[in-house]
């Protein structure tokens, strides 16, 4: 298979998984809604089902959110707030820098780039955290600036990794 076909197949699988998780959430919401209407009459009978449906809905939402951020579900709690997507991207770039440092063909320039970029990532992380408490307009401007810097770092990292 070509790289293009692999990407298409991967995107198709992601779309199907997202659709399935949305369907599960929809079914759970429907079940909870029905339980609210019928609840007073048969509440004790439906309570276990409602609890199970709520758990399934939460699990599906966690998987959906993790897929959106591009992180494993186990690390989802690390990325919260309005800057969660930026924090996830910063973590991804940090992982890429670690891979660059471990690469056998890494040059002294690559090591220097990784060290410099790591300092930049720490500043960007601090900026995103500080932006959480800013008014919406300033926060959005800060997030755009951080996203622009991340794009620059990501492109340089991909170039150095040979991708």
Describe this structure in words.
By secondary structure, this protein is mainly alpha-helical. It has two domains: 1-78; 82-161. Helix content is 83%, strand content 0%. It is built from four helices and no strands. Helix 2 (84-102) packs antiparallel against helix 3 (108-131), helix 2 (84-102) packs parallel to helix 4 (136-161) and helix 3 (108-131) runs antiparallel to helix 4 (136-161). The longest helix is centred in the first third of the chain and has 67 residues, at 3-69. The chain is elongated and about 70 Å long. The two termini are 18 Å apart.
Structural class: mainly alpha
Q: Count of helical segments?
A: 4
Q: Strand fraction band?
A: under 5%
Radius of gyration: 21 Å
Task: Note the main sheet.
Answer: none
Distance between the termini: 18 Å
Parts with pLDDT < 50 across at least 5 consecutive residues: none
Principal-axes geometry comes out as elongated
* Average pLDDT over all residues: 84
Encode the helix/strand succession as letters.
HHHH
Percent in helix? over 70%
| Tally of strands | 0
Count of discrete domains: 2
Short recap of the structure:
This protein has 163 residues and is mostly helical. The chain is built from four helices and no strands.
List keywords for this structure.
2 domains; elongated; 4 helices; 163 residues; mainly alpha
Compile the SSE list and pairings.
Elements: H1 3-69, H2 84-102, H3 108-131, H4 136-161
Helix pairs in contact: 2-3, 2-4, 3-4
